[in-house]
Amino acid sequence: MCRWLAYSGSPLRLHALLFETQNSLINQSLACQRASVATNGDGFGVGWYGTQKKPGLYRDIRPAWNDDNLRSLAEQIESPLFFAHVRASTGTATTRQNCHPFRHDNWLFMHNGRIGGYDKVRRCLEFQIPEALYNERIGTTDSEIIFMLLIGNGLLSDPADAYRKTIADIETAMQAQGVTEPLRLTACATDGERLYAIRYSSDQAAPTLFYAQGQQVQVENGTCAFTEGAGSVLVLSEPLDRSDACWNEVPEGYFLTAIGDRVTLQPVVPAEPISAVA
Amino acid sequence: MCRWLAYSGSPLRLHALLFETQNSLINQSLACQRASVATNGDGFGVGWYGTQKKPGLYRDIRPAWNDDNLRSLAEQIESPLFFAHVRASTGTATTRQNCHPFRHDNWLFMHNGRIGGYDKVRRCLEFQIPEALYNERIGTTDSEIIFMLLIGNGLLSDPADAYRKTIADIETAMQAQGVTEPLRLTACATDGERLYAIRYSSDQAAPTLFYAQGQQVQVENGTCAFTEGAGSVLVLSEPLDRSDACWNEVPEGYFLTAIGDRVTLQPVVPAEPISAVA
Amino acid sequence: MCRWLAYSGSPLRLHALLFETQNSLINQSLACQRASVATNGDGFGVGWYGTQKKPGLYRDIRPAWNDDNLRSLAEQIESPLFFAHVRASTGTATTRQNCHPFRHDNWLFMHNGRIGGYDKVRRCLEFQIPEALYNERIGTTDSEIIFMLLIGNGLLSDPADAYRKTIADIETAMQAQGVTEPLRLTACATDGERLYAIRYSSDQAAPTLFYAQGQQVQVENGTCAFTEGAGSVLVLSEPLDRSDACWNEVPEGYFLTAIGDRVTLQPVVPAEPISAVA
Amino acid sequence: MCRWLAYSGSPLRLHALLFETQNSLINQSLACQRASVATNGDGFGVGWYGTQKKPGLYRDIRPAWNDDNLRSLAEQIESPLFFAHVRASTGTATTRQNCHPFRHDNWLFMHNGRIGGYDKVRRCLEFQIPEALYNERIGTTDSEIIFMLLIGNGLLSDPADAYRKTIADIETAMQAQGVTEPLRLTACATDGERLYAIRYSSDQAAPTLFYAQGQQVQVENGTCAFTEGAGSVLVLSEPLDRSDACWNEVPEGYFLTAIGDRVTLQPVVPAEPISAVA
């Protein structure tokens, strides 16, 4: 499994959330608290929005904890919306192309989870990638496929529906191949303005998902605090500190939208994909 | 384009052919003599046969000229059959998985050339990869696809025929997509016993291919010499020294088989693939 | 040898100077025009000033021409003062720590050249690094030593004098060890406000150095143009295009200072270091 | 801290000891059992003796657990004497040059531990490296310095005495700088024939050291077994399986010599270095 965080709000230096808290993402790369695999050392990535629509992307195959470049970028870059991800491979190679986040035009996507029986359904799912997107398939992960299916299923116009359809596509393919392992999907996409996250699994064991919000986030003495108000939101795999003050857990089976000052949750309820297929 | 060499014969330290000649493969990585692109710095790889049927593989993304590990392995490893390749990317990413040679069971394959209009035919050709092989597709190059199509077309039983069919498959796909750029293919495959090489293009401009043979190869003062007799053969992109004594050029459109002490050449003559399809 | 450029002036996206000109630094990494070694593929680095006094640093061991991260950072980062360097090793290892620029507090330094007989003088020169700086020695190049000697010799208060003293220190050490190879030094340092460059050698064969200036630099159709006026300056190893319009060559043996709108040149004239020692 | 193993005996494929046991070195890279830091993901290395006096060396900066090259080399290489090491940095950079083992002519050396207050004593200790060896200093670790001091102190003729003198040198330097952190040193050197290991610390908290011996080592179902007799020996940081059958712990403060069929232990008893200095 992996760990990730997405931030949207007042421009913030990446360093604060990546390096400065007790359970910072960098610390999670070495030893995270709430996942089956503790070490997330198979590469990492950050994506951020600057003055252009196209976000920047820095991904590398080293463990995040020993990358001086990441530290320097995190010190320099201030951004109103950024993604960061530390990877624990579920089988595919450690290449930059397999590191999250993935980018398509002004969109970013990152993921923690896995498609059960990926070896059995990979070919079928790759063939469902829209032809126009096919050459953007530059890696080999299940996560990159999910992103492309999402785009094909209307991510740009109706993210909640795109998640539903993509889950249905994947579960249909898994069922067709007799896969019994689960689909688990705790992911986040953004168009540079809103965050669209999901916590879903086919076996009620989706990786954790949390959020916190307020007017501004402040990191002091390793602890994260949000000032009263609205405008900033953090969506992430697990809390960044040991305090319970600000963290809200997203329940299994829910879809989250964060639009600057408002977080909304709605059940995923996939449109009965399996019976629809049989 | 890339540069490569394949050796079969008396066990030989890789170092002799990779590092010790005037125009050694390592020197070619920095500045080769007979190709449109002089620098082959987008990764490299060696494959070699030891005491097992499965060959060893060492590939990395650095330029070959500054890799201490390659130097050390080349000093240590003696092998009766090995491949070495320095890469100049034609567009796909610099990852280990995109470096040659590629391996399938006891087989190795490497390539210099390109499928014209790869962006247009990639999807179609990936779908022609045999299903049983699909999960061995761990990179994104056209070269890896060619290897998989070769296997699907009978490489293991009739290499010459597999090359012919694969060329037909690729040219058919290119024609279907209206690709006007050429297919160029100077490649080599081996099962650990024989070398099966080809120099082919759809526009009479295939990358060069040479061979040399004799009882034993000797490298002295930067020059390669083969002693009288049979038993060792070298098939490669370009001569390793400035002497013309031992190097034979393979003509465009020819298929080469090297079986220890005998090199045979036969025309490729693709079986009129295009009209057969129309 | 290496290639580098330093820019100071109106905030500019790195991409313009690194990627968009005919003879851009990235093109120079693959094949530069005016150096003894054409390929600069042994790593690269960029250093830039943002909103803090401490500059950012991104260095990696890949050739610059195939690094997607560099491309993305260059697209995102706008800076009023930045350094970029592509490296051709003169013997030391390809590690990030050996890539330029080097950083000390708010200072950056980069270099093209070499200390002749470095193997013979390295130990002596390392012992001349000020003790307080010694743990900042994290690589093994002669260039990093030069930077530390410069700091020890007063770079922060009188750069021209620091260059003179450092040249004297190095030439003294070379003479003491009987080194006959030359010292060659085409380098640039900055405190984030001014550029302090030098073109010097002990054998009248220093690597080239150029500059161009104007109100603003504009890159169009692969060509660099400076608008009339003052405010922006570019100091670099070789011109970025084939036009001769804007490039001025710095003569051998000169020290250059660029202070926003003014470039001044003065002879280095080392303070007769050699006779002083004998 | 790090983890390592040294094998000497009947030629053995590296794969058996690196990959096949319950607590294999590769598993230890992800999560070792008996160290303060569980993850050893800051690079790795193997050194092995083949048909030449000079050993082979393969080191890289990735975590050992996700390196396909290491897996392939371990499958191919059979050797009568090899070292393997997984690294957890104690502060110095993750470069190949900082990965163990280190090589000098026909010697290899690797280490787990640290020189307390290294920042304070590094300069002093580097100046004690014999001048003739100085240019072999290509990294920045304390471990590489220890190896060079050992050579300077007679490692090639009297290893036990060289360890003693080197410990004295280091402790003298630490004392001179007022360092209060301990020296900890669990290391192994070899000339290609004998293993010279040590478990020492200045605070009675040296990293663990174990050995096992017999006629041959056999790995089955994840467990290591030694057949009755002599000829093979394994010296290592921690047992490779959960069985207690074959593993002997080396007590703190002991020096171990393994000469094919015989393991001897003797107390280190440094020659009262500290009082000698005061």
TrEMBL record, chains A, B, C, D:
GO terms for molecular function: transferase activity. SUPFAM superfamilies: N-terminal nucleophile aminohydrolases (Ntn hydrolases) (SSF56235). Residues 2-278 form the Glutamine amidotransferase type-2 domain. InterPro entries: EgtC-like, Gamma-glu_amide_hydrolase, GATase_2_dom, Ntn_hydrolases_N. Pfam families: GATase_4 (PF13230). Gene3D superfamilies: Glutamine Phosphoribosylpyrophosphate, subunit 1, domain 1 (3.60.20.10). PANTHER family: GLUTAMINE AMIDOTRANSFERASE DUG3-RELATED. This is Class II glutamine amidotransferase. It comes from Elstera cyanobacteriorum.
